[in-house]
Design goal:
Layout lengths: L15 E4 L1 H5 L8 H12 L3 E5 L4 H11 L5 E3 L4 E4 L2 E5 L4 H13 L3 E6 L2 E5 L16 E2 L3 H10 L6 E5 L3 H12 L4 E7 L2 E6 L4 H11 L7 E5 L5 H6 L2 E4 L5 H6 L2 E2 L7 H13 L1
Parallel strand pairs: 1-2, 1-12, 2-3, 7-8, 12-13, 13-14
Antiparallel strand pairs: 3-4, 4-5, 6-7, 6-9, 9-11, 10-11
Helix pairs in contact: 2-10, 4-5
Length: 280
C-alpha cells in the first residue's frame, strides 16, 4: 500500500474538484479505472462540481469528459484556455514571435510539436501514440514539414495559445526544455514524460482554475486540485486543498496540503472519498 497523508489533514469546504489527466486520473496504461469513475459520480451526486485541468487540448478533454459523463467545463492547455459548459471564458495566448521561436527549437532537434488554439491543433514531426489514434487526435491538422507548420502558424496569427514539444530521448528533451526556458516571455513546464508545454509568461493552471472558479461564483479556497507534474505546481500551491498524487514529482508534493495514493492505486478515488467523508 502506498503511504498517504490525506487522512491526517483538515478538509475545507469544497465546491469544485479539478483533476489532472496524465499521471493523475489516468493510470500508467492511460486508462480511467472504474473506481475513479464511480468516485467522480459520487462527488457530483453530493453536489460538488468536477472539472478536468490538464495540459491537453480541448478536443481531447471534451472526449474524456464525455466518457465520464461530465460537462465540457475544463481548464485546458496548461491553463491557456478555459471553457464552461463548452463556452470559452478565458484565454492567455502566446505571442506570434514566441510561437515561431518554439517551432525553431523543435525543428532544430527534430521534435514532434503541436500548436494549439481553442478550436485547432497544428502538428509537425513524428509521434507514436500508445493505443493509436482517437477521434480527438484525428481532428488535428498534420503538416508535412516544419516550414509548413511555420506558414500555418502565420495563418493563425494571434490565436495560438500553447506549443507542446516532445522527444522520446530524455537527453534531447532536457536540452529542448532548457532552450525553451531561455526565452524571456515563455513558461516551459513539463506536462507528461518528455513533454514540455510552452505557454505565455504568467500563464498556468493556477490562473486558469482561478478564472474558472470566479466564473462559477466561487473562490479558489473552495477548490480541491489533484495533480502530479510540473505544470500542476502553481495550482496545487494555491488551491484550497492541493493534493499531490503518490507518484507526483517532489516539487508537487512539496507545495501540496496532502498526498493521496498513486495513479495506479486509484489515488483520485481515495482523495474524493476523503473529501466526501468530511461532508457527512
Amino acid at each position: 500500500m502506498v503511504d498517504t497523508t490525506i487522512d491526517k489533514v483538515a478538509i475545507p469546504a469544497i465546491k469544485l474538484i479539478c483533476i489532472d489527466l496524465d499521471g493523475t486520473v489516468l493510470n500508467s496504461s492511460k486508462q480511467i479505472t472504474a473506481a475513479n469513475r464511480r468516485a467522480i459520480d459520487r462527488a457530483r451526486d453530493a453536489g460538488i462540481d468536477v472539472a478536468i485541468a490538464s495540459g491537453r487540448h480541448p478536443f481531447n478533454i471534451a472526449e474524456t469528459a464525455d466518457g465520464l459523463g461530465l460537462p465540457h467545463t475544463a481548464v485546458c492547455l496548461s491553463g491557456a484556455y478555459v471553457m464552461l459548459d463548452d463556452h470559452e471564458v478565458f484565454r492567455h495566448g502566446l505571442s506570434d514571435v514566441d510561437v515561431q521561436k518554439t517551432i525553431d527549437i523543435a525543428a532544430e532537434h527534430n521534435c514532434y510539436i503541436s500548436l494549439a488554439g481553442g478550436d485547432f491543433n497544428l502538428c509537425a514531426g513524428y509521434i507514436e501514440r500508445r493505443g493509436g489514434e482517437s477521434p480527438a487526435t484525428r481532428r488535428y491538422t498534420r503538416l508535412g514539414s516544419y516550414d509548413e507548420l511555420r506558414q500555418a502558424a502565420q495563418e493563425h496569427t494571434g490565436r495560438v495559445l500553447k506549443g507542446a514539444v516532445h522527444h522520446v530521448d530524455p537527453k534531447v528533451y532536457g536540452l529542448v526544455k532548457r532552450e525553451l526556458l531561455s526565452i524571456d516571455d515563455i513558461e516551459a513546464v513539463q506536462s507528461d514524460v518528455c513533454w514540455c508545454d510552452a505557454i505565455a509568461k504568467g500563464c498556468s493552471k493556477a490562473e486558469g482554475v482561478a478564472a474558472l472558479a470566479k466564473e462559477m461564483g466561487m473562490g479558489i479556497d473552495e477548490v480541491a486540485a489533484l495533480g502530479d507534474d510540473e505544470n500542476d505546481v502553481k495550482l496545487i500551491s494555491i488551491a484550497g486543498l492541493g493534493i499531490a498524487m503518490g507518484n507526483a514529482l517532489p516539487q508537487v508534493k512539496a507545495v501540496a496540503n496532502a498526498q493521496t495514493l498513486d495513479n495506479d492505486h486509484d489515488g483520485v478515488a481515495y482523495a474524493i472519498d476523503r473529501i466526501l467523508r468530511e461532508r457527512v
